[in-house]
Amino acid sequence: MTRRRKKPDPNQIDFFAALESKGDVQVPPEPTRAPINANKIKLAISQAIKHSHFERAEICRQISELAGRTVTAAMLNAYTSQARTTHQVPSDLLAPMTIVLGPTILKVIAEDSGCTLAERREMQLARIGQFYIIHQKAGEQIEAAINDLPLMRRAGA
Which tens digits make up the pLDDT trace of 95-152? Predict the structure, then answer.
């Protein structure tokens, strides 16, 4: 299987830019009780295919390999056709499609559900932020504990 370097999704937030901003990170709206719009998912799949570097046959081959079952070009066409309302993408194909085509499909589903999608690197950076806050709070607690000791008080405390 030929590997390609993934381009960042242009709709994805740059984590470092978000850190430098003044709190202007967009929070997704509350989800409604309305079902997720199937046509939006179909459109997202179509857009992902359109922006892919692979032909449909290669996309189907890769999805099939990852899913452990055959996905044909006709199936892919049915999953993207606005007119074929009875053909929806099975949930077991969402992960393979995301791996092959990128996060666009899951992003649409997440947004309609009132969530936002964070990729691996963003999660790693968020975790580093959590560790930093823990480190800061631990430093404050250590400082307070030292100041509580009679012989360890710092000058001016």
Answer: 999 999 999 889 888 888 878 788 888 888 888 989 999 999 999 999 888 888 877 6
Using CA atoms, how far apart are residues 34 and 111, in angstroms rounded to an integer? Answer: 13
What CATH number is associated with residue 91? 1.10.260
Residue 4 lies inside a defined structural domain of this protein: no
The pLDDT tens digits of the residues spanning 33-79 come to 777 788 889 999 999 999 999 999 999 999 999 999 999 999 999 99
Q: Are residues 97 and 131 in the same domain?
A: no
Question: Which structural domain range is residue 41 located in?
Answer: 36-117
Judged by DSSP in three states, 89 sits in: coil
Nearest to 85 by CA among 38, 45, 49, 48: 38
Length of the chain: 157
Q: How many domains does the chain contain in total?
A: 2
